[in-house]
């Protein structure tokens, strides 16, 4: 009992450090695991085609559909749209993507890119628009997920 009373500060400090280390392992462990899997940029176009580009290999591809052309570049472990001949080119100004779940979308061309890990399941996003009319709301177009 005297030992506990004399060393209470050391024991409490040890318990706090142990708790912090356990929290760090629990929080960082899954993130580290997800980063270690092979990441792939999956390109979906308006024709329903899907192309897979590993992020660990540099590549440049042109995707051409009846809606237009996009140039996709994989470089330095990230994917981005370098060029699009759509009216505004908003997709070319989106930041490069390199983490699972990140996406770049070109609405005029109905083209989207997502990053997936090797263990990820197939995506469920539908690139077709959904249109409905509500009595309190005007017609709305959405990209369905």
**CATH architect. name of the largest domain:** Sandwich
Q: Report Rg.
A: 24 Å
Give the overall shape. Answer: rod-shaped
First-last Cα distance:
62 Å
Mean pLDDT across all amino acids:
80
List the strand order in the largest sheet: 2-1-7-6
- Indicate the percent of residues in helices: 10-25%
Give a structural overview:
The chain contains two helices and nine strands; from the N terminus they run ααβββββββββ. The chain is α+β, with helices and mostly antiparallel strands and 145 residues long. The strands form three sheets. The protein has a four-stranded antiparallel beta sheet, with no helix packed on it. Strands 3-4-5 form a three-stranded antiparallel beta sheet, with no helix packed on it. It is rod-shaped, with a radius of gyration of 24 Å. The termini are far apart.
Q: How would you describe this structure in keywords?
A:
single chain, mini-chromosome maintenance (MCM) complex, domain 2, three-stranded antiparallel beta sheet, four-stranded antiparallel beta sheet, 2 domains, alpha+beta, disordered C terminus, 2 helices, 145 residues, rod-shaped, 23% helix
Characterize this entry briefly.
23% of the residues lie in helices and 38% in strands.
Topology:
Blueprint: H1 2-6, H2 8-36, E1 40-44, E2 50-54, E3 59-65, E4 68-75, E5 78-84, E6 103-106, E7 111-116, E8 129-134, E9 137-143
Antiparallel strand pairs: 1-2, 1-7, 3-4, 4-5, 6-7, 8-9
């Amino acid at each position: 009992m005297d030992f506990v009373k004399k060393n209470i500060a050391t024991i409490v400090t040890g318990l706090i450090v142990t708790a912090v280390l356990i929290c760090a392992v629990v929080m960082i462990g899954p993130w580290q695991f997800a980063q270690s899997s092979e990441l792939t940029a999956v390109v979906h176009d308006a024709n329903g085609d899907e192309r897979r580009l590993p992020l660990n290999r540099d590549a440049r591809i042109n995707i051409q559909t009846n809606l237009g052309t996009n140039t996709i570049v994989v470089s330095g472990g990230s994917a981005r749209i370098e060029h699009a001949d759509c009216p505004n080119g908003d997709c070319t100004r989106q930041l490069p993507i390199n983490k699972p779940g990140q996406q770049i979308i070109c609405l005029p061309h109905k083209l989207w890119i997502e990053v997936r890990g090797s263990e990820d399941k197939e995506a469920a996003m539908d690139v077709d628009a959904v249109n409905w009319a509500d009595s309190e709301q005007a017609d709305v177009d959405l990209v369905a997920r």
